[in-house]
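Sample intake — DUF4132 domain-containing protein
Collected from: Flavobacterium arsenatis
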Amino acid sequence: MIITKKRIRNVELYWHLIEDETEFYIGVSEINRFAKTLTRIGFSQNLELGETILPRVIGPVSRFNAEGRNDKQKHLEKETAYRQVMWKWKQFIGGGQFEEIEEVRDVPYQRYQVEFIAPPSEELSIVEVDGQKMILSSRILKTEENSIKAKHLFNLFFELFGECMMLTEDLDAIQLPEVIRKNWSVLPPGEYPFEEIEEHINQSLSVVRNRNSRVIKYRIQEVNNFTPNFIAVGTSGFTGYWIFGFPNKNIFILESVYPNNATYILGNNWELVSQLSKAEILRQDMQIARIVHRNTWLAEITNLLN
């Protein structure tokens, strides 16, 4: 499975998928997609099997990989360091004549003491797997100390290609577990008089400073009057969002306690919606309709659900 990210901070997200003391690789397939990037970082245009390079610097991760870095030791006293400059002056040589002199001089300055962190210098290679060319990292042995190497390689691939995949020592793809999001709490089935869900509304309202709480309760009550088959209350990063499900109509209404928002009408089944990220749910192509919170709101909701 292909992993697409910009960066990871916690390698444990993938580290636990590998058994201890086993070896694996990180790589990308269908490398013709990255032809420009590959030549940019140092591979030949022919992309010959066996080519191995230290990637050229194109960002902070590849810079560290190739050059290392100086970590400032701000907890220590500053030290005197020197930078060299070309120093020019005119020196009197007699008879009213001057000669221009130029020499290198050291100019002192104060700086934080630094600790040089050596570059990992990880190289990438072109290999063949099942008749297809791949870009592959060096072999990684899963040990506690190698988690730092693995994290660096993940981030190097993300910086260079925006994606990667994990392969076993035998170059079989490692399948990632299916993502199961837990962003919604579904109320037990049954009809809910407004008074019974008002407590949940108040909890949602507690996360925002909104003087229009009465308006928000009005909208939720009006949707609830149409007797949805289920109600899902957002949790975690979805706190403040509600979904009213009408699966017989294939309609799922997303309402929010946040100001300056709108009511979103989703047309996908609940199982799919519940596993989407917030960005995916609010994306334009997920919506059947977007009903702005204006005077015509109730009429549009009524027309939709009748």
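Post-analysis note: The first strand starts at residue 3 and ends at 4.
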